[in-house]
């Protein structure tokens, strides 16, 4: 397509994150155009009326939106359980799909979606692994690929959400698939991405050898009823020799602390060692200090824009996607295996076909 | 004006910085719309043809652009000597003006422009003091205004450009007005802004008591012919008791290092203590290290977007400007006084009318 | 004993670390006095002749030193395999013992030594867990004990030695007991110390529930012959609910990087986030950077002095030891269990009697 | 002298800092031996009785101490006004002298002392410019001398003492000579040391061209009666082209913040960018933060030991002093000139003979 052509988007689901996506598509992505949103909630529609151009179509029913909005692509930011059915419906309606992670908290459902995408080879489907679009993760990836770190062999990764006294996420725990799936999927995806980049994978089917997990509850003992925890660690051994050490938490007091340390034979890089909100350092009676990003959004807000821009480019210019649904499926397998290891108390091994042996 | 109405912009001058402004107006500013650019240079027009929508009007003559483009506002990013005449021409053509700093390297010309703006009370004129739109300077300002730092009394400010072996800026030194005007105007403006915010100014005419300057050449002895230096320091004493310590340099080796330390009675803040390019820290044979922003642009790129957004809001909603041409004139007086102090070897005092005594 | 009385020390083994200890005892520890050293190596004796007062007795045979030197206490800094026999011989000679870690690479030998110490209730035996004497670890401990971090629940700890192209440690691998024992014993001891301090231990016999380990070789494939690795990770689950995540490495490129992150319910502390050598930051073409401590010695040199001072005080004033041989035994059990987990590929559980089940 | 011979010291004045010096000489300096202290205050003598070996002679009269103690050297840590007479008396008693800075708050007295030292060429006299013995300043000096920073041309230096609500220093202001002399003498000495190291000094008599100073009171308006301020800035232009920008303060809220930034043509170094107390970083509701050294003593405690060690070596081995009384005199001239500039409101120039023209 020509440079001046724009990709028409409908955003499905305009809750908190969907609103941000809608604004990005509307105002910050040169080759993308917001033509519609769909959300059944009155508050969401009211927000859209207040905040978006009157030319944007408003739908309460996503299927009607798919049928009538004239969108070329959808950005799915609805609640997790709708990710899979919306993706499939969008494909059948002939739309390209950018869907928030995870495809599903259920591994088989994720697998079914991936199978379905194969029937639509002309449609692009990308899962929103936003960290892949962050300039700092990109810089680390570039350093690995240009050999500046030697061979990467170990990643320590942490996603520590700020403690929320309201207990919001707890009420949501049952639907989230648990901390490894809900919170760890980005860490797992980045480990796959950064460790594989300069390593040969002897058996492309089998990417993981073994995982081990351990979790404990610090502030949310009520999570036990959902078999979930507020602090979880894990070790993932990859077939190519790389290792991921993982720490997920819902109880950080200073802010959202999303950390990665990538070890190569010739050096290491640390991403976001200090999760600072801005370039201000304060020196007062509390010491020498800086404020942290309160949520993942302040940390990755530019990445969400680049994500849409690159997906748009991939569709308009028919280029390969930076991350595809198979990547999402592999990450889901690992997160599911970690969850199983945590619950069973045993390491989980992977078969030669690349499937976790959930015994 | 209604929310959905957009402010139509023409960008005058699309050299390196003008191109960035044009792209911001075109793609990153929801209520702004790029309708035209003007630049006499073929390369600039070619860039515009390649990079902008075909709906954007291209002009080689800025006066024709003012007359025909249908713009409501102009963003002037031409070479410095055209800032003043373009501003005046735009006002006479009924356009709002957002002009890059400085208005002029000549104090009287700046004064003339400010006088001219008074004849057009319905037109907004803002000078692009980009640091005022940076989130970190804003955070410091907010802390001062909410009393978190007590009374501000001292600012140490440094603008240290990365050393450019090509000598580009040297060739440009004659036209730049010298390092205090070219490079120090932002530091001076920020000092006025941050020091005044919680202090009473007893005599609004006289804002400065005295300035003192000293400079030396480290890598560019040829600057002597233009009475300029590549490293300059200065002290500005404000009438409200605040002090600015200033260091300007063209010879930083690690990148663009733009630093501010604001001292209040109850604490201090440091802005950009480490001029890091991103959130990556490298640990290898060179130590524990980070890369720096190479130029002011990587440091302030989001500020340039906010600058246009806020100017646009001020025009569309008829709100006060965050910074106006009088601010630019006051900063120019101080920069001129520092230049005079450096050249004369004497402190420069200010009259009760607020004019530097350039004896 | 009166303040002015000094504790007389013999240092057994004056290789690199023993020399440092001897100098500390001689010159930096007010209540300690160096009266003798013992070492069979001519180079060591020559060093002692050159560097110590002529009043210090020099022995090639440690047993003769025990019998004749008049020392009240010994500081054992010999090669690891002599730690146990020297400790036992010193006790039988009536000397207090400060012995470098580990007591032994063999768990049963460590246990035998601990049993032997019980026969000498009037003699103090301390194992040199130097990190317990470091001001930063002390500060973290103090914060935990005063409740500033809430309840501690997770420690991420890393001991990453600088890569030594000479392969020195590789030649030594067989005698070291492997990376978990040789390099991880400090991390394990600190985790026991910092996690237990504000937690009740329900079953004092059983301190650990389970350990899991994984290792890989990056630069030293030849370690395989000793069943060892140059990079190792591990997870230790303590009975009190605390968790240790461990990373040990011989391949850091920037220096000795010894890191700890202690998570409490109300906050966390990071110890040595930047392993800087001094307070100098360099900004040049390599970026904004600092040099790292090259070895553990630069990192902990003051801790080694405090260690001797506190041991001396404990003996002279008959006060409890800051760390005792039972602590060393518990750490040895965990290190041995991690080694077994790494080699067997299985988690290792602990019995109700607190013994690792090395099946 | 032979290695085993020790230099016998008397410490004159054992107030807070003198006590620290006495303990260092007694216990941390291998070749130094504390034989006596002198102090007229009963509390000081009581401290000495409680804290020092009974072999240390205690004197209320320093002249008796000089006559009877058998010391080879004195360390003078008394109140400032006694520095000069004690130095002269010690020289006449045949003692080497290590005296705390400044020699005197009066320039002529300092000059007289320096003249007096010339009569005793066999006796060493060193002024305690402790920063010259700090490992980080040393590292910066080494980098300059080995050419790693190119030619040094600018130093920004700050000594900011923690605000003391008790007003202790205010009561002391009259006797201190004012902030430039009391607090700035170290910054001035370091600038002389670091800027001269790789520069030729065309006229050794005239080291300074011009100074300019400006001060203001933030929390201590009562200082006006002593012609003093609690915040002071200054610029010193050296004859070799180097420049010092100085900031002295009594009102830092977070701790003692002693900062230096040394600019060379090929890079710069920052010393103590974060005045951290230890290697602990806290992350809690107050942000990501570290504690600062509360006073100069925590910052420089190892430097005070090295200072005595190097002075001892210089005497015992008859080696040149690292810093001598002429250095102290030159620093005093500059501090006096800054004080004059602040009070007169004018720059102060230096004569060709190197004297400040205090007109």
Primary descriptors:
359 residues; 15 strands; Dihydrodipicolinate Reductase, domain 2; globular; 7-stranded mixed beta sheet; 11 helices; homotetramer; alpha/beta; 6-stranded parallel beta sheet; 2 domains; Rossmann fold
Describe, in short, the structure shown.
The structure is a homotetramer of 359-residue chains. Chain A has 11 helices and 15 strands.
Structural summary, described in words:
Four copies of one chain form a homotetramer. Chain A is an alpha/beta fold and 359 residues long. Chain A folds into two domains: 7-123, NAD(P)-binding Rossmann-like Domain (Rossmann fold, 3-Layer(aba) Sandwich), CATH 3.40.50; 131-301 and 325-357, 2-Layer Sandwich (Dihydrodipicolinate Reductase, domain 2). Chain A is built from eleven helices and 15 strands. Chain A has helices at 16-27, 42-51, 62-68, 80-92, 107-117, 135-145, 168-176, 179-182, 185-196, 296-316, 325-344; strands spanning 7-12, 32-38, 57-59, 73-76, 96-100, 125-128, 152-162, 208-216, 231-238, 243-252, 257-264, 267-271, 280-284, 287-290, 348-349. In chain A, strands 12-11-7-10-9-8-15 form a seven-stranded mixed sheet. In chain A, strands 3-2-1-4-5-6 form a six-stranded parallel sheet, sandwiched between helices. A two-stranded antiparallel sheet of chain A has the order 13-14. In chain A, helix 4 runs parallel beside helix 5 and helix 5 runs antiparallel to helix 11 (325-344). The longest helix of chain A is centred in the last third of the chain and has 21 residues, at 296-316. The mean pLDDT of chain A is 94. The C-D interface holds C 4, 26-30, 53-54, 135-136, 139-140, 143, 148-149, 266-273, 278-285 and D 4, 26-30, 53-54, 135-136, 139-140, 143, 148-149, 266-273, 278-285.
